[in-house]
Amino acid sequence: MPQSRDITVLIVDDDPVVTAALQAQVNRVLGFRVVGIAHSGHAALAAAARFAPRLILLDLHLPDLPGLEVAHRLRRPEQPPADVIVISGRKESATVRAAIQRGALYYLVKPTRTGTLEQTLLRYAATAEQLEASGRFAEQQEIDRIFRSLHTDQPFRPKSISAATEQAVLDALAEVAEDVSAHELAASIGVSRATARRYLEHLVDRGLVETRPRYGPTGRPQHRYRAR
User: Which residue ranges does the record assign to the Response regulatory domain (predicted)?
Assistant: First the structure.
C-alpha cells in the first residue's frame, strides 16, 4: 500500500508512450506515486482539480492549450496548490524564461534520462522536506540551502556521515568570519577533533568548504577551513 506521505504526481503529455514511460520512472522513485495522467491541457486542469497532486510534470506541447497557459491556469485560486516541473523538447531561452515566470520550479529537456528525472525528484523531495520542517527561517543561509537543495545534485553521503552533524558543521562555519581549525570547530559543536576533521574533509570533497594550510613556528602546517 502506498504511504499517505508519498508525493503525489500528475503527468501531462500528449504522447501516451511518453506518459507510460514517465509513470514507470516516477513510480520507481521511493516516496513518489503517480495519481493521474492527462493528454491535453483541459484534461490536466480537470485532473489537477480532482486529484490535487503535490507535483505536476508538464509538457508544453499539448493539443488544445499551450503548456504555458496550463501552467498559468494552475496558479488560479480555484485550483489546488501544486508545484510544476516542465518536461519539454523546447530549448529556447524565451520559453524557459516564460516557464519560470509561470511558476515552474525546474525545466527538463526531452528526452529525459531516467537518472536525471530521478535526481530531480529526489532534490524536490529533499527541498519539500526542509520546507515542512522549518516553521520560520532565522537566517538567510537557511533559505539559501533550500534553493541549493532544489537545483544542486546531492552527492552520495557515506554511512559514517550524519546529515544532522554535517549541517551543524556548515552552520558553525557560516557563523564565523574567519577560517577555523578542526580543533576549534570540534569545541564549538561538541564533537571530537577526529570527527570534526572527518566532516570537514567530506565537505571539502563536496565543494562546500575550502581549506588552506597555515604555517606555525614549527613549520608544520595547520589546516584551516571556511565555508565557500
Answer: 8-125
